[in-house]
Amino acid sequence: MCIKGNKLEPIRKGSPPDIRKVIIVKAIVDPAFRKTLFTSPDKVFGEGRLGERDRAAIERLQATVPALDLMVCALAGEISSGG
């Protein structure tokens, strides 16, 4: 998946998107969506569609987000200071 504008699109034309990857990418870049995913995952996946694999992925993402936020802040600082 890649981000074009504010839309997620498959890397190769005609390849179907992996919805789980789309959800993870959106959760990384959209804090409001991330909050919904973490607090009400059935709203994101649909009632009764959330499997154990999905729950485990959400838990891994929750554990990873603080480090991602630190990296983004550091990167923003580098970009804004020009170096």
Can you tell me about this structure?
This protein is mainly alpha-helical. It has one domain (2-81). The chain is built from 4 helices and 2 strands, in the order ββαααα. It has helices at residues 19-29, 31-39, 41-45, 52-81; strands spanning 2-4, 7-9. It has a two-stranded antiparallel sheet. Helix 1 crosses helix 2 (31-39). The chain is globular, with a radius of gyration of 15 Å. The mean pLDDT is 83.
Q: Please state how the strands of the largest beta sheet are arranged side by side.
A: 1-2
Shape: globular
What's the multimeric state? single chain
Number of continuous helical runs: 4
Amount of helix = 55-70%
Query: Helix/strand/pairing class, anyone?
Result: mainly alpha
What is the count of distinct domains? 1
List keywords for this structure.
66% helix; 83 residues; mainly alpha; globular; two-stranded antiparallel ribbon
